[in-house]
Amino acid sequence: MNDELKNTLIIDSDFHIRQSIRFFLERDGYIVDTAGNANEAIYKTKNNQYNVIIASYNLSDLKGIDLLDTINNNNPSSGELIFISDTPDMKEAIASIRRGAFDYLSKPFEIEKMSFLVNKAVEKQILIKEIINLKSGFWGPLKNVVAAIDARDHFLSGHSEKVRDYAVRIAYEMGLSKKETKDIELAALTHDIGMIGVPVIFIGSGLSEKDREHIRMHPVIGARILGMNPLFEPVLPLVLNHHETSDGTGYPEGRKDDYIPIGAGIIGIAEVYDAITSDRSYRKAKSRDDGRNEVLMEGRKFHPDIISAFKRIF
Length: 314
What we know:
Layout: E1 7-11, H1 15-27, E2 31-35, H2 38-47, E3 52-56, H3 64-74, E4 80-85, H4 90-99, E5 103-106, H5 111-132, H6 139-150, H7 159-173, H8 178-190, H9 209-216, H10 218-226, H11 236-240, H12 262-276, H13 288-297, H14 304-313
Parallel strand pairs: 1-2, 1-3, 3-4, 4-5
Helix pairs in contact: 2-3, 4-9, 7-8, 7-12, 7-14, 8-12, 12-13
């Protein structure tokens, strides 16, 4: 792991908690700083760059989301923030994640869980750095980044490439322009890049409400990461909306019909078809015919023109 991205800040009024977390992170090779209150932490984040910030949600001088907003306003490139709370509250946790916190832990927590989250947060920082540094003609390096994300779960290996191939076929069938098709290809390849910001061990049955909220946020996270490089500006609406559906049951905003870009709808149907026809940790793949029929049964979720093109191809 890149040692340049291992600077952490621990914010907690309890000295023993600060030192305990510090001990385990330093054991894992992290560079650790601490602060005993929000004012001290805000001063430090103004003058130092941290990749991961671990903060008590219940500081006496500034609580939770207000601390997150203040740190981000003072330093927009501040690192991933993990909250720890004495009084666990699911609404509080979900609000924090929606506002941009990396995760929310309740005390007492296992130190292995903290180590897992910090490692995932640093992985996200590494990805952001790679995306920012991409230049024109980036297809090769970008494919390597996407492949590395998919490879974190062997059930998802090759997923983004397959979604890209299906989406491009649908775009051609619909007669979209070369520019529109190229944008769809790029967005389809990067549609799940926000999953790097989802600290969920596995995706399937048995997810908690907080885990589901993390997953619902991955289009937002992906668009936010890609938006750090102007080369991706044309595809941001497609990445952001690829899980929206025409009947309003999608996420992250529950958009409907014409409020969803056609390219996002194409990526959405391609992803659903690949998910049905591929093995997952919680079920076996279905046949292509079964996958086609299942997609068509959910036809109300997609634009009629997309459904028509899908039927002609598959």
